[in-house]
Amino acid sequence: MLVTSSRKPSARTRTLCKLLSRFIAGRCMTRGKMGMQELLEFAEGGPLIVIGEYHGNPGELSFYDEAGELLFSLRFTDWYSKELDSYWFSGIEPKLAGQGEIAEAFKVFFHFQRVENDKIDQLPPSSTLIVVGENDIDFMGSGKSLFKLNLRGFKKY
Q1: What span, in angstroms and rounded, lies between the C-alpha atoms of 131 and 126?
Q2: Quick one: fold of 2-156?
Q3: Hey, where are the domains in the chain?
Q4: What's the pLDDT tens digit per position in 39-58?
Q5: Cα separation of 28 and 61, whole Å?
Q6: CA-CA 20 to 30 A from 107: which of 1, 62, 83, 95?
Q7: Is the pTM value of this prediction over 0.70?
Q8: Nearest-CA neighbor of 136 among 145, 127, 144, 123?
């Protein structure tokens, strides 16, 4: 899975690109002048996530399938925890928790193992977890929130 940026990304967008790709055990690449076909070639037959900007900050995630078809997009503001500075990403695929349309879209896109909300406490301490709520998506590692996307909109295509 490839995570990439808009054409001229800000430092914050590049940071989110790196964090998200490490968290989901994917690859990160700065887009530059590449068009969609070139990005799909770099994705090597896998899905693609493009991080868009709003006023110089990361503000949208667009999720594309292997053929380059836009499946859904999220608008958001981001937040980072101080815990992130000392966190080591294990490269293990995270688990997915949450209910609703966004959680279902994530399940179909990522194919991550789904965990019921009442079973989160039973996961091993080193687990990574994406918790999809009504208003946010929390990316957690070792039981702590590492970064969060505060949702502003969701659109399915």
Answers
A1: 16
A2: Rossmann fold (3.40.50)
A3: 2-156
A4: 999 999 899 999 999 998 99
A5: 14
A6: 83
A7: yes
A8: 145
